[in-house]
Automatic annotation (TrEMBL):
Pfam family name, one: Amino_oxidase
Gene Ontology molecular function, alphabetical: oxidoreductase activity
Protein name (Swiss-Prot/TrEMBL): FAD-dependent oxidoreductase
Superkingdom: Bacteria
InterPro entries the record matches: Amino_oxidase (IPR002937), FAD/NAD-bd_sf (IPR036188), Zeta_carotene_desat/Oxidored (IPR050464)
Domain Amine oxidase: 13-272
Length: 433
């Protein structure tokens, strides 16, 4: 039996961030991770000298970037050129990404070019929170007239959110993500695994303890108060605070009578987003100029991350492709479609192939801000004193990893703000104490 101030369940980016901020506040903290390594979905694997993330990952200038900088992480890598192609009717066309490509793209009429440029200008300055209550479709149809400008925006907003349909995502958060993307995405040297190593080191330096390969099986919350964390291997840890940095469905399994808490609402309203991910390492690029493409009438994206990041020890080019999936994905068809896009961009790639990785259905996020959401999850589970949630799904308007870091910090801030008298008032209000 051990006793600590804070137990974090899950050692992904949300869990690591929460642990660091708890330790910085002087709390004795333990992270418990069921896998034998930390990182969750942000790990990287080295295959035949090439570094592969679990699908294409880029870091935008949002909450996560600011948090990692605040923590002193080095974040080695570069911002790639934004020069891009659009896949339309099975052909490649230059997309407007700078003045030259705007004027030369065959996709847009003169009127379309003007509308595209003026919309991007407006977007770069807009406060997008005003669009939190309308869908992407409503925003596009209310703000853009030219059909091809609409198509291109749908494609950019899909890439920003990973969500296929424009009717569900709230427009505000995705427009903000697009704004951040337009400031330049960062591709990390050696993949996101380096980020995890840096977070791990930072946490260890602050005294956080890690238990890996140990699965949490339940949280003891007698009388509506967090008391103990129980693990499958028999480990028991007494604690005042638990941060559930897992998916909403795992969170609900770990908490007795969770169906009577907000965890139930958060799980019921959650909409999962998945993608098929194909990554290839090639000896050389058959078409060196064709490195980045958005699907316009296909829900795909291709990016050669090696054009900006160090991703292989021997100069191999690491290309990531994503197929944004809808409700009923078909892994074989998705692979065929992704290979088709690679044929279009890099004809003859099979002869240059060193190694490939295909992940047919990755969960990009367990939930996001969408039009059917009743409430934003967390930070506190109001019915149980000392219980918190964090993770990309606990978004209050942030997207993907920004939601993971922001929710983790919200949990710690809330925990600290309720210490002493105020905490009693918070829970009395909810009828627990
Ligand atoms: C294909 C793909 C592409 C992406 N691209 C981007 C991108 O370009 N930009 C971006 O910002 N984000 C991107 N993301 C999202 C980003 O990877 C996630 O937001 C982030 O990694 C989520 O971190 P997390 O800590 O919330 O969850 P996770 O990484 O899933 O961590 C949860 C952890 O909890 C552990 N766990 C679960 N149950 C238990 C238990 N009972 N006991 C102990 N441990 C437990 C799990 O093993 C896991 O390690 C992408 C994701 C995918 C899949």
């Amino acid at each position: 039996m051990q006793k600590v101030d804070v137990v974090v369940v899950g050692g992904g980016i949300a869990g690591l961030t929460a642990a660091i901020y708890a330790a910085k506040a002087g709390k004795q903290t333990v992270v418990i991770e069921k896998q034998n390594r930390l990182g969750g979905r942000a790990i990287s694997n080295k295959k035949k000298g090439a570094y592969f993330n679990l699908g294409a990952h880029s870091l935008y200038k949002g909450d996560a970037y600011a948090t990692f900088r605040e923590l002193g992480l080095t974040l080695q890598g570069k911002r790639p050129s934004s020069f891009a192609y659009g896949v339309w009717k099975g052909k490649l066309n230059t997309l407007p990404s700078d003045m030259k490509s705007l004027f030369t793209t065959p996709l847009l009429s003169w009127k379309g070019k003007m509308e595209f440029a003026s919309c991007l200008m407006k977007l770069s300055k807009a406060d997008n929170r005003q669009f939190d209550r309308i869908s992407i479709r409503e925003w596009v149809e209310g703000n853009l007239r030219d059909p091809m400008v609409r198509n291109i925006f749908y494609s950019l907003l899909r890439a920003a959110s990973y969500v296929v349909g424009p009717d569900l995502p709230a427009a505000g958060p995705v427009l903000k993500q697009l704004q951040n993307a337009l400031k330049g995405a960062l591709y990390l040297d050696r993949g996101w695994g380096e980020l995890i190593e840096e977070l791990h080191k930072k946490a260890s330096d602050l005294g956080v303890r890690f238990l890996t390969n140990i699965k949490v099986s339940s949280i003891d919350t007698r009388d509506g108060i967090v008391r103990q964390v129980l693990c499958k291997d028999g480990t028991k840890i007494d604690t005042h605070y638990v941060i559930l940095a897992t998916s909403p469905s795992i969170a609900i399994e770990l908490v007795p009578f969770a169906e009577k808490t907000a965890l139930h609402t958060w799980k019921e309203q959650a909409i999962e987003v998945t993608a098929a991910c194909l990554d290839v390492a090639l000896k050389r690029l058959p078409k060196p100029k064709q490195q980045f493409a958005y699907g316009i009438d296909q829900t795909v994206l291709l990016s050669n991350h090696s054009r900006a990041a160090y991703l292989s020890d021997d100069g191999a080019q690491v290309i990531s492709l994503i197929k944004y999936q809808g409700k009923e994905p078909d892994p074989d068809k998705d692979l065929q479609e992704l290979e088709g896009v690679l044929d279009l961009m890099q004809p003859g790639w099979r002869e240059e192939l060193i190694v490939k990785q295909y992940l047919p259905k990755m969960t990009v996020c367990h939930d996001f801000m969408h039009m059917k959401r009743h409430e934003n999850p967390g930070p506190a589970v109001p019915e149980i004193q000392g219980l918190y949630v964090a993770g990309e799904w606990a978004s209050h308007g942030e997207v993907l990893v920004d939601a993971a870091t922001a929710s983790a910090k919200r949990a710690i801030q809330h925990m600290l703000s309720l210490e002493g008298k105020e905490r009693n008032a918070f829970y009395e209000h909810r009828g627990i104490i």
